Amino acid sequence: MPEPGPGQVLLKVTAAGLCHSDLAVMGWPEEQFPYALPMTLGHEGVGTVAAVGAGVTAVAEGEAAAVYGPWGCGRCHKCAEGKENCCPHAAGLGILPPGLGSPGALAEYMLVDSPRHLVPLSGVDPVQAAPLTDAGLTPYHAIRRSLPKLLPGSTAVVIGVGGLGHLAVQLLRALTPARVVALDVAKDKLELAREVGAHEVLRSDGEAAARLRELTGGTGAEVVLDFVGAEATLAVAAASVAVEGAVTVVGLGGGTLAVGFGGGLPFEVSASFPYWAAARSSWRSSNSRGGVLYRPTSRPSRWSRRPRRTSVCTRGRSTAARWCCRTPEPRLPQGRRPSLAQAPAPSPCGLRTPTTRSIQRWSTVRNCGVRQGPTSTRPVSSTPRSCMS
Hints:
Layout: E1 9-17, H1 20-26, E2 44-52, E3 64-67, H2 77-80, E4 109-112, E5 118-120, H3 126-129, H4 137-144, E6 155-159, H5 165-175, E7 179-184, H6 187-195, E8 200-203, H7 208-215, E9 221-226, H8 231-240, E10 241-249, E11 270-272, E12 283-284, E13 295-296, E14 363-364, E15 371-372
Parallel strand pairs: 6-7, 6-9, 7-8, 9-10, 10-11
Antiparallel strand pairs: 1-2, 1-4, 2-3, 3-5, 12-13, 14-15
Helix pairs in contact: 7-8
């Protein structure tokens, strides 16, 4: 049994997930293997704290926790933002994810380098929780990037209803009002997609893009999530996305997506390939709202909340107002409150612009030129919501 060093936590594994990427790692030839051997697989792990190293006070023996996988240095700018999955120094410092360079969860015990990488289970079944550390967290991160586009009347497409894709369908239904269309080549996968909430299911073939265009009145889908990543599925994604839409490639199928003028994508389309998820977006499952409730691992202060991205221009000049959510709000010392923000006068759009007890970030309604604030008059609550950054 390994011994935890200073700052480390020893976990007795109670459940572990086997991911499709584990099969890909096992298929690499030895001469191309990027990690030192021998290596224990398993980047989806859950267990109970068996021992802690010197200086560890955040967790105690016997506590049940899930392991957050993409470890960072914990000191750089990205890690300070909670984006350890984007840490630029981890590889250079020899910091590798469990099961993908470091000893993983397919063992009786595993070492976790820091208690900040443990998410309390709070009574959740370990077998159900283990796959969520990747198969649930990765599609959540992919969807969260495109939430501003998924307004009422929009369409989201999920290509590939596998381990991640079927969770993406559920997350889209839970987090957005968008119509969800699922594509796959297997009949049983399409039946699964409909069971977990997809509004429409289509066979992923040469006619899929045309049928998607027909479903959307010729405009295309605002968001396309490809959980396969092969040449054929990326071609469907490029042919079915709308102007100003988003194509997010999650699958490891080895395909390529041409981006640029003449590349086949409509104007203003963004393309991305997200990696796992930020530490601040690590979510845990609980039996609520039909079996799924996503909560952050730590409770943000009431003054660090970001405004909600929900309002509609009633003059018809635009479809929605968007808040500036990229700049972090200032963090105040404990006990201090920000001054009340002065709300602008009522706008000609008819949208309410109330003063709230939080720092307001007024932004311009698209194509309207009217500056708006949050539509809710309720004070900011310290209770975590189901769709938070």
